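Researcher: For the annotation table, I need structure tokens for Small ribosomal subunit biogenesis GTPase RsgA. Please keep the output clean. Sequence:
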Amino acid sequence: MNLKQLGWESFFENHFTDYDQEQFTVGRVALEYKRMYRLFTEHGELLAEITGKLRHSATERQDYPAVGDWVVISARPEEQKASIHAILPRKSKFSRKAAGVTTEEQIVAANIDTVFLVNALNTDFNLRRMERYLLMAWESGANPVIVLSKSDLCENVSQKLMEVESIAMGVPVHAISAENGEGLDQLSAYLEWGQTVALLGSSGAGKSTLTNALFGEKKQEVKTIREDDDKGRHTTTHRELVLLQGGGVVVDTPGMRELQLWEADEGVSQSFSDVAALAANCRFRDCQHTTEPGCAVQEAISDGTLDQERYNSYVKLQKELAFLARKEDQRLALAEKNKWKKISGDRTRVNRK
Ligand SMILES: Nc1nc2c(ncn2[C@@H]2O[C@H](COP(=O)(O)OP(=O)(O)OP(=O)(O)O)[C@@H](O)[C@H]2O)c(=O)[nH]1
Ligand SMILES: [Zn+2]
């Protein structure tokens, strides 16, 4: 496998120079099991475990490898195995709140260049949802592209395109149909050699159909490793990174389907830069945009330049984010405490020797 095709580039290379090049090489995580990782490497596919040292220094879930991560490994190609020593810094990442009572960050996929925000042009069409997806995309560090699918089922595509462009804030918007192939060629620019693409969108939006239409015949067969377990020998074919022939990589993880909003402060200001620009013109610095005199936001709503629903959506997201931030603060305090417990625990063990 060619590292460049897998998405290896100077960003990662620069970080890899910190490691001994004689001893280590790199791989990209294609699938995550409970304790094992399936990696794409120069030596083909390897099955890897993280070293005790890495496990020991990991205090949070995000300290463990995720699909799409580039990891520093020592490879044992003859056994088709490897050990993961470190995770290289992530260029972008999609996270979600890990299930449970605490809001721990769980990384769903890392190092995505472009994310297709897929929304169907029929009954699925919902600007408020698109705003949320945009927010997640900005927050992730990947470049969003809005894909309006099922254009064959829509009578007024140009009207819809205009509506979307009003909230898209300069993000490219493409109307496509996997059914009749319309617009598909516009997407190929994002799928060049070495590029990593992911798709986000609600169930039924047409992600799988689009994936098949775009990549169906391009999927590269990956030589599978046979592995032993107590049930005997078998081969797994499922991968969450899909390699394309002559192209890049598609991330296809179930986790992307369940994404929730996570700490998206920066995303809010980018997605709602129109609201932020208006708010800067309010007479009072601390204007709450409710009943204050000289409120530019309320003015814009009443003269129709700002859509009331868009503003409501902004307020709602702000509230959700404030709530998440409070939970996150509590979680960080706890993580810090646990880290110190772990460190002082180590010291106790050392002292006892
Ligand atoms: N008419 C038309 N139907 C489409 C198009 N793309 C997808 N569909 C149909 O929409 C339905 C849902 O498509 P999927 O690709 O399974 O949607 P998905 O987003 O992958 O859904 P999940 O797997 O639940 O996340 C299927 O019945 C598709 O045949 C299109 O361009 N035109
Ligand atoms: Zn105001």
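Researcher: And a one-line annotation?
Model: Residues 266-351 form a domain with the Ribonucleotide Reductase Protein R1; domain 1 fold (CATH 1.10.40.50).
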